[in-house]
Design a protein that fits this description.
hpI Integrase, Chain A; 3 domains; two-stranded antiparallel ribbon; two-stranded antiparallel sheet; 14 helices; 4 strands
Length: 347
């Protein structure tokens, strides 16, 4: 008779001979059960192991997670908290009942690595999960709860060079050909303001006075706190869009709305955007690349670094780094412009 033993942890290993062997543990990080699976002896050892597991409050990874979530190190923004909470649930499901003492075991890093590698098909998810776990343990170490963080310097599965990952005129045209007007509005707002997706979805009509858009963006930096105000002049395509939508009547307080005329939820917007993006077949581009695209377009239009920063809300240093390292390296338009100027002076 097969008995389901809740919490039983199995590990499959391939031996040098090529044979695959399965090892059983009372729980992840718990004692190995050396008996025939599903035998009375196996069930007996499993039950005894759990009976001896007298954990007190504060000695499992679940408690470290709870302490992290209640600490000042937990992210402040709602979007970051949601992202962290999603991965913390994964960690709790896999390792929540792991005793804190097990974190000092040299083999636990391998356990964590195996868990991360199990998500290799989605490398960005795997890296984010690892990063969140490492952050929880880093805070625990910093506060004296553990002596060693077994997830330090874990490496990354996802490698991405965002250099020159900008939306070209052809990409924008292809997206607009298949996207709904609601999604096209979001695209135009992103291209003309250089703001993040979350900020644009929250943007209300009260922030637009007919000439400018007033945005509150978070200050950046380890010691930075609060928000700063960014005034983006509305001109060209952006102003025409806003004035047309305003004249047509507003059904919601937010500028961007879904097909029902109601404010987007984050998940709803991302789902609709991804479907349109797939139809446009644009490859390795993302919504957040529109922020860098906005910086690039401003630079190619002849704007100075301070002018760009005044619109996008970046620091001067960040704009310079974006232009130098990620978006304008080798841009043909700038090279051609430079040669035209050189020719005009030196013939």
């Amino acid at each position: 008779m097969r008995v389901e033993l809740k919490g039983l942890h199995t590990v499959r290993k391939t031996l040098a001979s090529g044979e695959t062997r399965t090892y059983y543990y009372a729980w992840r990080g718990g004692p190995q059960i050396k008996a025939e699976p599903n035998s009375p002896e196996f069930v007996k050892l499993f039950t005894e192991a759990h009976a001896k597991r007298k954990t007190i409050a504060g000695d499992t990874l679940l408690t470290l997670i709870a302490e992290f979530k209640s600490s000042s190190d937990f992210p402040k923004s709602d979007s970051s908290r949601r992202a962290y909470n999603n991965y913390l649930k994964l960690i709790e499901s896999e390792f929540g009942d792991m005793p804190i003492a097990a974190l000092a075991d040299p083999g636990v890093r391998g356990e964590f690595k195996s868990w991360r590698d199990g998500m290799a098909a989605t490398p960005r998810k795997a890296d984010y999960a690892w990063t969140v776990l490492a952050r929880v343990l880093s805070v625990a170490k910093d506060r004296g709860r553990i002596a060693v963080n077994p997830c330090e310097r874990g490496g990354r599965l996802y490698e991405s060079d965002r250099a020159d990952k900008i939306w070209t005129a052809e990409d924008i045209k292809a997206f607009c050909a298949v996207a709904s007007p609601d999604l096209q509005d979001a695209l135009i707002l992103a291209l003309w303001t250089g703001q993040r997706q979350g900020a644009l979805l929250r943007l209300t009509w009260s922030a637009y006075d007919g000439a400018h858009i007033r945005l509150r963006v978070p200050r950046k930096g380890r010691r930075a706190s609060g928000h700063k105000t960014v005034l983006v002049p509305a001109g060209g395509t952006l102003k025409a869009l806003l004035d047309a939508r305003k004249a047509a009547g507003r059904k919601a307080t937010t500028i961007l709305t879904n097909s029902r005329g109601t404010p987007w939820t984050g998940d709803g917007f991302r789902s609709s955007w991804d479907k349109a993006f797939e139809r446009a077949k644009l490859g390795d581009l993302h919504f957040h690349d529109l922020r860098g695209t906005a910086v690039t377009r401003l630079a190619l239009a002849g704007c100075t670094v301070p002018e760009i920063a005044s619109i996008t809300g970046h620091s001067l240093k960040d704009v310079e780094q974006l232009l130098d390292a990620h978006y304008l390296g080798g841009r043909l338009e700038l090279a051609e412009s430079a040669i035209v100027k050189l020719t005009a002076v030196y013939g």
